[in-house]
UniProtKB/TrEMBL annotation:
<dbReference type="GO" id="GO:0009060">
    <property type="term" value="P:aerobic respiration"/>
</dbReference>
<keyword id="KW-0186">Copper</keyword>
<feature type="transmembrane region" description="Helical">
    <location>
        <begin position="600"/>
        <end position="630"/>
    </location>
</feature>
<feature type="transmembrane region" description="Helical">
    <location>
        <begin position="495"/>
        <end position="515"/>
    </location>
</feature>
<comment type="pathway">
    <text>Energy metabolism; oxidative phosphorylation.</text>
</comment>
<dbReference type="GO" id="GO:0015990">
    <property type="term" value="P:electron transport coupled proton transport"/>
</dbReference>
<feature type="transmembrane region" description="Helical">
    <location>
        <begin position="227"/>
        <end position="255"/>
    </location>
</feature>
<keyword id="KW-1133">Transmembrane helix</keyword>
<keyword id="KW-0349">Heme</keyword>
<protein>
    <recommendedName>
        <fullName>Cytochrome c oxidase subunit 1</fullName>
        <ecNumber>7.1.1.9</ecNumber>
    </recommendedName>
</protein>
<keyword id="KW-0479">Metal-binding</keyword>
<feature type="transmembrane region" description="Helical">
    <location>
        <begin position="287"/>
        <end position="305"/>
    </location>
</feature>
<feature type="transmembrane region" description="Helical">
    <location>
        <begin position="416"/>
        <end position="440"/>
    </location>
</feature>
<keyword id="KW-0408">Iron</keyword>
<dbReference type="GO" id="GO:0022904">
    <property type="term" value="P:respiratory electron transport chain"/>
</dbReference>
<dbReference type="GO" id="GO:0046872">
    <property type="term" value="F:metal ion binding"/>
</dbReference>
<keyword id="KW-1278">Translocase</keyword>
Amino acid sequence: MWENIKDFASTFFVTGDPLIYGADVSIVLTMVAIVFVLTKYKKWGWLWREWLTTVDHKRIGIMYLIASLLMLFRGGVDALLMRVQLAFPNVEFLHSDHYNAIFTTHGTIMILFMAMPMMFALFNMVVPLQLGARDVAYPFLNALSFWLFMLGAMLFNLSFVIGGSPDAGWLSYPPLSQNDFSPGPGQNFYIWGIQISGIGSLATGINFIVTILKMRAPGMKLSKMPLFSWSVLSSCIMIIFAFPILTVTLALLFLDRFAGAHFFTMDGGGNPMMYLNLIWMWGHPEVYIVVVPAFGIFSEIVATFSRKKIFGYKSMVWAMMIIAVVSFFTWAHHFFTMGTSASVIAFFAISTMIVGIPTGVKVFNWLFTMYRGRISFKQPMLWTIAFIPCFVIGGATGVMLAVAPADYQYHNSYFLVAHFHQVLIGGVVFGYLAGIYYWWPKLFGFKLDEKLGKWGFWFWNIGFYVCFMPQYALGFMGMTRRYYTYGWDRGWADLNLVSTVGAFMMGIGFIFQVWQIAYSIKHGERDTTGDPWNGRTLEWSIPSPAPFYNFAVVPQVKEMDDWWATKEAKANGTYKEQPAKLEPIHMPKNSGIPFIMANFWFLVGFGFTFGWVWMAVIGFIGVFACMWARSFQYDTDYYVPVEEVRRTEASLGRVV
């Protein structure tokens, strides 16, 4: 029996690599520390009541934010490990299999488990407040969406220490992702981690579309809605059409692996190119799903810190909605070399160039907004200004890749790697960091320290160019993706070393940001006004941090940038104060079912990962039991009495 246990443990746990053992120790120590602190300070009940069962969109946004920052750290460490491996020719820091696993997990984590939750964090933090709503349309579904994401991310990350990480690339093309080349459970971790979190992403898209269309404050027509909320609507429209494609694609891949189907195996009548078409029918809209909300963030920040109304509001809205449509007609530019007809290649080349037009429109709108504005160079504005040249370079290199004959030379080279990161770091990460700095006081009641933030900003930005500019040259010199080693005779050593130095500079920038958050919790400038940036939209009209019901009285919107117009009217003496009439506020009750149901989904994924059908069946039974229990819950909401609202507002320094 003891021998059987040893044999099982040797295959179940990943062994033989010092980095893995270090991760094992870190995981155990972290779990012990969390349990110790919660037990010593008797916080288990607080954790359950205030966080694990919450349906408050603001707290869910904070949990998304914490998760995304942890995933940024994990994905960033993967990137640094790869760069160390490539810094010198013939270095043996990582063996080839470990490098492939890190390459795969880095891409997957950064797109699906860092960018997506950081985006959803900002959705939850901001959209209901901008709309004058007290919560999202479906608070229960919102909580379930978060926990599905969280448990899916945990399932995927477990593969590092249990079973082995996937190593077929971050999009897992067949035949590399089939059983013949990926026989272990690693690829199943990939499939089920993404499947579970993807269900949550789809639910979030539905939730915010309904919230935006049905829960705006009285008087807020779509033509008066803030641009960030417009960008969220555009992104969510793409989500509800793109993510079902991902779900079906991964389900078919799992059937190939688990049930012996042959959707993507050539020798069984399938076709790997069908997988490429399906995965990129999701994958390219996914790029716009994560970058369009950043455009909305920049629009809010530019207007606020230029002290001007955004230039070309209608053109901005049309640009974002056009991107939502055209993004679904560009996917084949990822494989111009597949050998299809010239007419097909021409169609996708032209559509790829066309999608750059609405993007360019927005850049000019931001520049014209800043023109002759009274610009204040605070942290959110610094990240916004840094984004513009970075994204322009990324867009220009994207147009180069859209030229099909030229793409035959760039394809799978480091030129493509540099372009991809130029767009996703310069657009998505810079955008979301700008948004986090901008709305941080609204969620937490204090600003992040400017001095430490600027150190982080400059290390990030200088490090970015030092890291990725050499990769364009490496691509021209013939270095392709997925190299884990190379010879001195290639002539790539110097540029790879420079690129690695840049990556570590970005890592230092991230350390400054973590230090900045820790320092600011105690020493950061407190927001006593609710409007620390002299903002324009409704979220700045309420205290910081916002009360759990958001608005004591639902605002009446008269025009775009209504809060700015209100402040101007008060300054001019033309504002007519309306008597506030407090009424009981309808709010949803907390529920533990989303957390429990997500854990059962984790059980489903873990069971199928190792082929333990009995465990998956137990998980499905638990999921349906949770749905059954929820269907019989009728006491799901309550009313906040007027007296409690008045006391809360008084404690925040407001008289209503």
